[in-house]
Design a protein that fits this description.
The chain is of the alpha/beta class. It has 3 helices and 3 strands, in the order βαβαβα. A 3-stranded parallel β-sheet has the order 1-2-3, sandwiched between helices.
């Protein structure tokens, strides 16, 4: 009888957060769940840090070692944050994380 174990210790993940839409109160649960599947080697949150809606994230950044990425809103109706996240995600994939 073979014993099957899942060793996820060598899996690496990047956590890219859309700070305009995510809630800081959920980050602990997100990190706990993703930690079951590997190591989060990149932690970034994207948003326009000059706006008041990002204030809730500021203390959370230090607690969970999340790197803030400034993304200004250049136009109305377009989400520059999403575009920045997509570009960084592709860079991480092709760089091998």
């Amino acid at each position: 009888m073979a014993i099957h174990t899942s060793d996820h210790s060598n899996r690496r993940f990047a956590l890219l957060i859309d700070g305009d839409n995510a809630q800081p109160k959920l980050i602990k649960d997100i990190l706990t769940e993703t930690g079951k599947y590997g190591v989060i080697s990149v932690r970034r949150i994207y948003g326009d840090w000059t706006t008041a809606n990002m204030n809730g994230w500021k203390e959370t950044l230090h607690t969970y070692a999340i790197q803030p990425i400034q993304q200004f809103r250049y136009t109305i109706g377009k989400n520059a944050t999403d575009s920045a996240m997509i570009i960084d995600a592709m860079d991480l994939v092709y760089s091998g994380l």
